[in-house]
Each structure stands twice: as structure tokens, then as C-alpha cells.
Amino acid sequence: MSPNDGQAMRSAAPEGQIMRSLSDVVQERGPSLPAANVAGKGVQIRKLNAYYGAHQALEDIDFDINPGVVTAIIGPSGCGKSTMIRCINRMHEVVKGATVKGSVLVDGRDIYASDANPTRIRRNIGMVFQKPNPFPTRSIYENVITGLRLNMKRKPKREYDEVVEKSLRAVALWDEVKDKLHASGTALSGGQQQRLCIARAIAIEPEILLLDEPASALDPTATMKIEDLLFELKTRYTIVLVTHNMQQAARASDITAFFLADERHIGHLVESGPTRQIFMTPTDKRTEDYISGRLG
Amino acid sequence: MQARIHFIEELTRLNHDILTMGTKVEENFRKAIEALKTRDPELARDAKAGDALVNALQLKIEDQAAALIATQQPVAHDLRELVAVFKVTHNLERAGDHAAHLAKLAIKFQEEPAFRQIEKLEEMVDRCCAMIRGTVDAYLNNDTAKAREVAKMDNEIDRLNKEVVKDVIELIRERPEQVDRATRLLTNSGYLERVGDHMTNICEAVIFMVEGEHVELND
After folding, report:
1. Nearest-by-Cβ selection for B213 from A10, A18, A288
2. Domains in chain A, start-ordered, CATH in brackets?
3. Could B212 and A18 be called an inter-chain contact, meaning their C-beta atoms sit closer than 8 Å?
4. How far is CA B84 from CA A25, B62, B68, B91, in A?
5. B76 and A11 in contact by Cβ < 8 A?
6. Would you call A292 and B73 a contact, using CB atoms and an 8 Å cutoff?
7. pLDDT tens, B17-41?
8. Which residues of B touch A8 (CB under 8 A)?
9. Which residue from A29, A246, A234 is spatially nearest to B4, judged by alpha carbons?
10. CATH (domain of B176)
11. ipTM of the complex
């Protein structure tokens, strides 16, 4: 917007009227809506309830996750944010006694439908955890193609080579490791190991990438690299980022969802919206209190 | 236990300085108009010197606000409040400059005979001081109703300015040799009119701080 446009807007606004709200600015300038040419699949969460045995962890979550943007889930410990993303790839039910009610639609299909195949679903949804966890006995090269080897038919070595280079380039690790592809993954720094784990997750070309506190064990430089990487990857994958670090959510995400447990210790979605709006003008006082450090 | 005690204490200290700054600007206006009325160059010099404190407070408050942004990562209302701080200090500082201009006029006019526009100027200064006090109160109390109410006082200052302009033009017609004096009066009346605009800017900043919306209070 040029200064002249602003002038025109000022003079056109009637006295006492709102000239423009912050949400207008967010809509104009914020990258909250996906670009037209993005890959990745949308996720619609409907009436989702998650339980660990008799304890309910999440109640009636309704929430859309769009492709082409990074969606951050924030909230204090115990609010159910990790449970939330583990419901998106059916990892929640891996815990003994854990159950789910409601639906999660990925590209319109309910992953909790009776005929859905959990293994196939997990194959299409990559996940990266808090602590970098490369397979310690495997080389960098083998770490990247592990998922491919487990999930798909054997391919010629040339194809694996291509996937390894493409995946490592995508996470900006190729130049750092191209001369030691057959060294152990654990020989890398923490930040490099985490990028290796992201490379491993995207090597299988998932539709969705879930990251659970991916930078919490990393130093600031490595954290910034991961955040830059999310910016690069979001046009190719639907990205959901769970983070304790509100500044990270503010910096790296386009949409932020705030979860909070109620007095019964059951997690709820308090509000979600464009990250700039959530951090500038949240609508719910509980969100304001949390992001301002006055709660939890 | 209340969270972010350090941040809240720092913000309280900063707001205390804003109150001091607003009070000082108001005090400088009171001294300047009194000096002009009573032909008291000492009081006028006192008012003029007071502007240095206003300027120093602006820098101190803005440094504090920048440090809080850098170290405390404020968001939502906290962030909007710190954004508003810069608008409050900037506009108070400009108002302070106009108090200093009025003090300079009092020094200039110390040997001059009485003039009939002094009453209107005094009325304008009264309104300006009420606006300064009101806007600072509205800011400190997050009071948007007060901000909207105070902004309306600007219309009264505008009206008085127009009356002074009309009066002074008449004076120039009647006594062209008084043009130098008349021009100084016109300029200062214009400055007082600008004080109303600066306070209106602060009222708009208060509404942004509390409601997150940009509003235009006076056209």
C-alpha cells in the first residue's frame, strides 16, 4: 500500500468509524491463506474426542488445517496438543487403552472410517519428534531411505540415490553431508540430526508433516534453520507444528491454534486464526493471558 | 501467583514517566500563558526550560519501551500498549514544543501592551490542558470512552482558533503597523490548534491499544 492509498483511506473514513481493523491488515498481508499452487492435503477435524483409558484428553475439537500454510498448535503442558497431532496420523491409538471418537478427514476421507488402514495412513503422514532420533546404527544415507524400504517395493539404487539427494537438499543438509553419506547419522550435530529426521520423513513423500516440538532440543542457530525450512516446505506439505515456544509459533506459522485444558483437565481448542491476529488481537481472554505469559 | 511481575513493574514505571511527562507539558502551558498574561519573563523562561525535561522524558520512556520489546517479547495488548507508548510520547513531545513556543512569545511580548486576544488564547490553553490531562488519563486507565470524549474537545479548540484568526485579521486591517505582533499571535494560535490534533492522535492510539482497531476520531 502506498502512502497515498493510506491518505485516501484516512480521508474517506467517516468520523468515529473504524478505518481498518488489524484483521484486514492480516488478510491483506498475512500469508494465512494458501497459495493456489501448493501440494499437501487439507485436514478437517470434526467432533474429535480422545481418551487415555477412562481419562478424556480432548473434547469436541473442530478444526481445519489447510495445505500451503504452517499451522502451529500452542498451549500449556497437558492441554492435549501432542495428543491432537497424534490423532491426525492415528498414532494416538498406539498407546495402550487410548481411543478416539469423532472424525479426521484427510483430503475428504475419514481416517477413522472402519475400512481405513492405519499403516497406510501413517505412511502418508510424516512425523518428527522433539528429540532428533536418527537410527543410530544406520548411515545418513540409510536413515533417509529407511521409510521407503519399509513401506514400498525395493527400488534400483539409482532411485534411492535420487531420493536421498532430493530429500537432503529439501532440508538444506545436502551440502553439509554429501561427502559423508555413509557415516553414522548420530555423528551429526543436533540440528543436523533433526534435519536428517525431517529428510527421512519427507523421503516417503507424505501429504502431511507433523512436527512435535521439533526445535526444543536445538540451539538458536539450528532452530532458525528448522524454522526457515518450514517456510520452504509448506508449499509441498501440509505442516502442523506443536510448540511450547510461542515466539517460534509467532515466527514460523501462518495459523495458530490455542489449546487449553479445562478444570476437568480435558483439552479444548480455545481459538484459532491467522498467527498475526492471534498474537496481536486474540479474541479470547484466555488466549491473551497465555500468550502474554499471564497463564500457565 | 501473578505472572510476569517484572514486566508489569517495568510497564508501571514507564507509565509513571508518561504521567510525569503529561503533567510537565501541562505545567509548561500553564506557566507560559500566565507569563504572557502577566508579562513575566522569568516565568516564561521557566516554562521554556521545562521543555528540556519533557524531551528527556520522551527519550527515556522510548528507550525503556524499546528495551521491553527487545527483552520481554510482548504480544497482544502488551505489544499494542508499547506501540501506543511511542505515539503518546511523540505527540506529548510535540505539544511540549508548542508550550515552549508560547513561552517564547511571552518573552517576546514582555514589553508589549496588553492585547485583546489573550482571553481567547487562555481559553485555548485551558482546553489544551484539559485534553492533555484527559488523554493521559485515558491511556493510563485503558479508557476508550474517555478517549472518545476527550477527542471531541478538539472541535472547541478549532472553533477558538478560527475566532482568533478572524480577530487578528481584523486587527491587521485596523492597524497594519501591528502586523508583526499579529503574525506571532496567529502562529501561536495555530500551534495551540495543533495541540488538539496531537491529543486526538493519542486518543486514537488508546483505542488501538485497547481494541486493536485503528479509528479516525476527528476529520
Report:
1. A18
2. 37-134+208-291 (3.40.50.300)
3. no
4. 18, 11, 13, 11
5. no
6. no
7. 999 999 999 999 999 999 999 999 9
8. none
9. A246
10. 1.20.58.220
11. 0.76
